[in-house]
User: What shape does this take?
Amino acid sequence: MDASTLQATGYGLRFSSLFHSGRGFVFPCDAHGKIALAALSAPQRESYLRARLMVGSELATPVVVRTAAAMADPEAPG
Assistant: This one.
């Protein structure tokens, strides 16, 4: 996922690998983990849908993570 896109949203939905520490997928989301599918490019959308299918077999349940932009904003929830 593009770092500037993640900074713009302030949050990312992270799918961590169950087998390879530090690997996985991160998609821009809101503070509640909602993904704006229409805002993703076709390859990003395909990767997101594939990641959802791999939860439990190759990827952990996704978690919302804050980006540097969200942590610098005192008004950001969480």
Q: What stands out?
A: The two ends are 22 Å apart (CA to CA). The beta strands are 11-16, 24-29, 63-66.
